[in-house]
Amino acid sequence: MTTLRERLRKVVASQAEIEADEERVEAEHFVGCTPVGTVKDRTRATVSGVVRSMTWRPREGVPALEAELYDGSGTLDLVWLGRREIAGIAPGRRLRIEGMVCEVDGRRTVFNPAYELRPRPGE
Fold first, then answer.
1. What are the structural domains of the chain?
2. What SUPFAM superfamilies does the record tag this protein with (predicted)?
3. 16-61 confidence digits (pLDDT tens)
C-alpha cells in the first residue's frame, strides 16, 4: 500500500525522476545485478539498464563503439573496441552487461562487456 507521501511525491516528480524510478525497479528484477551507482572501480560487475546514447569514436586508430548505460542510480560507459556497430544495440534498448569496471577520465567504464539484450518496454 502506498502512503500519502509517496503518492504526493509521484504527482510533483519531474519526468526524469519518474524515469529514474522506473529504471531502478526494472534493474532490481534481475537477480545478480548491482545498481550502477554502487559499482566500485576495479571490480567485476553485472548491471542492467537502458542505453541512453551511442557514439562511434576511434581510440588510438582502433574503431570503438561507445554507449552510456543508465539504470536510475547512475551511468556506466560501455566501450566495444574494434566495433563500429552491434546489431540490436541502440538508444532506448535495455541491456544486461557484465565486465570489469575501471575509471577513465573520472567516469566508470567497462571495455568489451559481455551483454544480453533485454526486451524494450511493451515488447
1. 4-118 (2.40.50.140)
2. Nucleic acid-binding proteins
3. 665 666 666 665 665 578 889 899 999 999 999 899 999 998 877 8
